[in-house]
Amino acid sequence: MKRTIAIVCGGDSSEHDVSMRSGAGLYSFFDKERYDIYLVETRGMDWQVHLNDGSRTPIIYKDFSFVENGKSKKFDYAYITIHGAPGENGIMQGYFEMVHVPYSTSNVLVEALTFDKFALNQYLRSFGVSVADSILIRKGEENDVNPADVEQRLGMPVFVKPSTDGSSFGVTKVKKVADLKPALDVAFAESDEVMVEGFLAGTEITCGCYRTKQKMVVFPITEVVTENEFFDYDAKYNGQVEEITPARIPEEIADRVRKITSMIYDILHCNGIIRIDYIISPEGKINMLEINTTPGMTVTSFIPQQIKAAGLDIKDVLSDIVENQF
């Protein structure tokens, strides 16, 4: 019998609609001969299954089931493609643990940790991973921040970004001290914790991977080139970027990136596909920027590009990920 798969998308962050596009991408990629596939759109506590006739029906939360044509159906697996809360911070994973439904992402602890950029950086630094120096500021503390002290510690420019948010919203590149407090206001509109991070010059790249019981698969590396100040929302979603796969970097550096990516995956004991972003400094130092545990999955997103560049069929990759938990 076919397994019934829920592609769980939407969510509560500013990237709800982006997540829906990832859901549609995944729906097109999955092997329909092997699985019965449904989109499950979430917004708050309103979870709706998109039925094949175009109608919707609510999720029954006690066992992650639904009713179609008068018959109850229970999902066998949840493929989470929510960018931000609650699918990328451990909350949704906790629900699936309680109803005993296997899911595509890492566990509650890992999702919570990777969602908190500041905490993740401190944790991985203890394993020798190179990250930018940063300062954490909590809501209510912003008026205690002395911009001159920030400049002395981190220099200029700096990035001001929500520390606990999965989206591209609220991020500002600050070039002068006078612009720091307005940038904090923008970031605090997205999160109660804000990270001020030192600027890292160099080449931006991103590398995806996944592990099954039998193998580790590290995809070809993508180089990210944009005329924008940084890889912001417009660069990500409005085409203001050039994405080059494989990246134009020396093979020796590419090999180190692949090894670091695999190492981080195993340190955290991740599950499913993750994507790690890096900055390679002019002298060849590899600095981790962040980890995406529910990376974009539209046709033009990084991971589908990398899978294609690897000569793999995305249908088979997704089947790998699902079957690894049965």
Entry summary:
The protein is of the alpha+beta class.
Topology (elements, then pairings):
Elements: E1 3-10, H1 16-29, E2 35-43, E3 46-50, E4 56-58, E5 65-68, E6 71-74, E7 77-80, H2 91-98, H3 108-115, H4 117-125, E8 134-138, H5 147-154, E9 158-162, E10 172-174, H6 180-188, E11 193-198, E12 203-211, E13 216-218, E14 222-225, H7 233-237, E15 242-244, H8 251-268, E16 274-280, E17 286-292, H9 302-309, H10 314-323
Parallel strand pairs: 1-2, 1-7
Antiparallel strand pairs: 2-3, 3-4, 5-6, 8-11, 9-10, 9-11, 12-13, 12-14, 12-16, 14-15, 16-17
Let me know the number of strands. 17
Radius of gyration: 20 Å
Q: Ranges with pLDDT <50 over ≥5 residues?
A: none
The averaged pLDDT comes out at 93
Structural notes for this entry:
Helices cover 30% and strands 27% of the residues. It is an alpha+beta fold and 326 residues long. The protein is globular, with a radius of gyration of 20 Å. The model has no long low-confidence stretch (mean pLDDT 93). It starts with a strand and ends with a helix. 41% of the residues are buried. Strands 12, 13, 14, 15, 16 and 17 form a 6-stranded antiparallel beta sheet that branches. The protein has a 5-stranded mixed beta sheet with strand order 4-3-2-1-7, covered by helices on one side. Strands 8-11-9-10 form a 4-stranded antiparallel beta sheet. The chain has helices spanning 16-29, 91-98, 108-115, 117-125, 147-154, 180-188, 233-237, 251-268, 302-309, 314-323, and strands at residues 3-10, 35-43, 46-50, 56-58, 65-68, 71-74, 77-80, 134-138, 158-162, 172-174, 193-198, 203-211, 216-218, 222-225, 242-244, 274-280, 286-292.
